[in-house]
DNA sequence: CGTGAAATTCCTCATGA
DNA sequence: TCATGAGGAATTTCACG
């Protein structure tokens, strides 16, 4: 991971379909050298995957929702992690500092779907107190990559 | 945006370097038809860009931080949006429901950088009360796409 | 670790159904 | 809207500096 690698990553983030020759021209390397660096970064896990950023509304997920919650006292955090992993609407779930130890970010099609998601989380049996926050607009929207179906 | 388009997007999200022939084989379409659908989705803005997902730690941004804040009463929300747009560490900034109207997500290299970022936001002159939350671990990490340099 | 050229694979585009 | 096929690019590989 030297500076050259970082420049290549920046260019790929902008447009990962760029030709190796183009990238090479911009960073001052032969196409095959660029190719070799990309191959290494993929192998090292620096690059996790080549993907597409999409418009969430076009995929019928216009609502961005944050859930902050505490688990029930007897809950097993490991089991909770597994219970929510793989939920198609949950984009992120973090264990965080503060009074509400869990922060979940999800995207849904309608407000009704918020309740459905909450019920599904509740079904794990670990849900304690919780708080729902809805995004009204976004000054910086973030990158949306659709879930991959299994 | 029919179901065929959705399947193609799912496959591209998984690996956007897949050959058109592969995708066509999986969804039952000729390579040129897949190409045409992708071209249309890019033109329509359904696909925003082809990009790469990376490991934030490998790019020296291991710390995930959430800021919740209120603006000062006299603050102009539009000016605030512009002030934070383009900040390299701010991945997301949403106007949300609830007692803390703004939610910012950022990635930084060290805890010291949290304070730097806060000071930069404060420099806009709009920052009121605020609360910092640090992610300890992530059950669902989310997708990290590095910022593109201007 | 980087290069350049050969060999392969892929994309593009015009045409027709 | 989709499929076919030819021509032109791009990627990949590899022997060498």
Automatic annotation (TrEMBL), chains A, B:
Record flagged with keyword Transferase: no
InterPro entries according to UniProt: AsnC-type_HTH_dom, Dimeric_a/b-barrel, Tscrpt_reg_AsnC-like, Tscrpt_reg_AsnC/Lrp_C, WH-like_DNA-bd_sf, WH_DNA-bd_sf
Keyword Aminoacyl-tRNA synthetase (UniProt): no
Domain annotation HTH asnC-type: ranges: 1-62
Listed GO CC annotations: cytosol
Gene Ontology biological process terms in this record: response to amino acid
Keywords: DNA-binding, Transcription, Transcription regulation
Protein name: Lrp/AsnC family transcriptional regulator
